[in-house]
Amino acid sequence: MSQTDIEIVVDDPTAPEDDSPSVVSSGTIEILVCLLLLALAITLGYDNWRTGASWDATGPEPGYFPFYLSLILGGGSLYGLITALVARRATSGSFVTRAQAGRVMAVFVPTLLFCLVTQFLGLYVASFLLIASFMRLVGKIALWKSLLTALVFTAIMFVTFDIAFDVIMPKGPLEAAFGH
User: Fold this and answer.
1) What burial letters (b/e) apply to 143-152, b meaning 16+ CB within 10 Å?
2) Which of 122, 124, 148 is nearest to 135 (CA)?
3) Cβ contact 118:157 at 8 Å
4) Quick one: pLDDT band at residue 150, thresholds 50, 70, 90?
5) Is residue 13's pLDDT more than 80?
6) pLDDT of 70 over the 90 cut
7) Do 160 and 123 touch, CB atoms closer than 8 A?
8) Which DSSP string corresponds to 79-130?
9) Angle at CA 43, nearest 5°, toward 39 and 48?
10) What pLDDT, on the 0 to 100 scale, is given for residue 178?
């Protein structure tokens, strides 16, 4: 047996259970995504038709190419929708289970909060809070390691973006207190 044939199996103690109930089926998600893409195509098509989707004396109007791209998107969405509706009669597998959705939400909710906190406390404070909380709560890493890593990473971000490259980043009251 060669080295490439060896399989390493690592058990993840935090992996979702196999018997977790399904939250939504794959067919439902396919239909929902096709409907959302169709709505986007209709919106884009209407807006580009309104701004001009034909040729004038100087060439194509501003909405010409985007209009036809929205027609292609709409056609693809309709095809996907019809295919998903026809296939829905067959058994459709689970898109996500309750345990999997919980793991996704454990990342999505803090990331959403990070975006909101950035608006009020600035990028660096929000980054510090996000990194420290992820390391502590999700990674189960010691508090002092989480805080130290978040502090070092945030300091490196500040030096890189604000000092070295002079990039304007969202600031909060802490940066204002230090004169930045």
Assistant:
1) eeebbebbee
2) 148
3) no
4) very high
5) no
6) yes
7) no
8) HHHHHHHHHTTS---EEEEHHHHHHHHHHHHHHHHHHHHHHHH-HHHHHHHH
9) 145
10) 77
Residue 165 burial class via C-beta count within 10 angstroms: exposed 0-12, middle 13-18, buried 19 and up:
exposed
Looking at the chain, which runs of residues are DSSP E strands? 22-25, 55-56, 59-60, 94-97
With beta carbons less than 8 A apart as the criterion, state whether 115 and 138 touch.
no
Nearest to 29 by CA among 74, 104, 96, 89: 96
Amino acid occupying residue 78: L
The SS3 of residue 25 is strand
Residues constituting the chain: 180
